[in-house]
Design goal:
The protein is of the alpha/beta class. The chain is 38% helix and 18% strand. It is globular, with a radius of gyration of 22 Å.
Length: 402
Amino acid sequence: MIPALMPNYNRADLAFERGEGAWLYTVDGRRFLDFGSGIATSSVGHNNPHLVDAITQQAQRVMHVSNLYRVPQAERLAARLVANSFADTAFFCNSGAEANEGMIKMIRRAQAKSGHPERTRIICFNGAFHGRTLATLSATGNPKYLDGFGPRVEGFDHVPLNNMNAVRDVITAETAGIMVEPVQGESGINAATPRFMQELRAACDEYGLFLGVDEVQSGMGRSGRLFAYEWSDITPDILSTAKGIAGGFPMGAVLTTETIARHMTPGSHGTTFGGSPLACAAANAVLDILLAPGFLADVRDRAAQLDAGFDRLVATHPDIFTGRRGLGLLIGLKCKADVATVQNAALAEGMLSVTAGDNVLRMLPPLTVTEADCTDALSMLDRAAQRVRAHLAATAKPENVA
């Protein structure tokens, strides 16, 4: 008999009742170092006092009114995001998939209303992940995720990441824009090079296309800057973000320029829950933390500590790990051993992590992670590697004896 809770997730047998900072505690009293952060979502750690206070105070006033009325909390949040990014305006929604749906719609509508209704196609990249709706699954292009859901939504062309010749080869008179993740999380922590991002910007300028940057996972401080596109010294036309934007409260956003947004007239797009007083109070609290003097510099310091430590792990355990990938606190360890075995060994040592494609162990600690937490994580992974080695030795088939 099917359980009451739909079994579409392969859940670990862990139930957490509370958290503090980078640590989670199970209902049976065990403690785990959280280097998954709810897949890059618990950005300011668990039970962050400033975030909890902001949510509590707002919940006691009003949680939801709909976008039929002004929402001062959303107005303040939009102004702060605009002031700290390339954007002129912001649209708030509920998730990364919804943000990417909005980005796709806005790119197409801006082209149509600018006299190019034929421009509907968007160039995406192999290994991308843009969400679970039918359109964003089609933008993702992974056959596994599309299996059983009928025909793909038309209008997406896929090419290899970091291959500008392939991009130029698929640009046609029907191309509306390009959608790229600065760092692909799902497929194995694969980063677009700064030069490639700059070449994408140049191609969009040359052909009259819009450059869309998917920062659902890499945005909101995860890279060590507020947005990862900043590392490439470019200006996008439109950007999606979500996950860590509200520290665990469901929220997404689309940031864009007036050139695109002036076509989003009343009735052209909307959302019931997006930009609620409660969600925006949470996001404003997160932004208080991220924009505090020195905070993002601290994120970069912790990233440097982990990068150096992971490089040592690769050198010490070349039979388990083969390399490090990533940007800021969006980190991948490419495994030689089976990544699920490595993840389970880390779990046995008390550390939570996330797997990714290409046999990569993905680590996404809270941005508030401490130096001591990072030292603990490196020790846990060192012991996990020893566990994996012992397991492989114990299960190895004996060589034939002549």
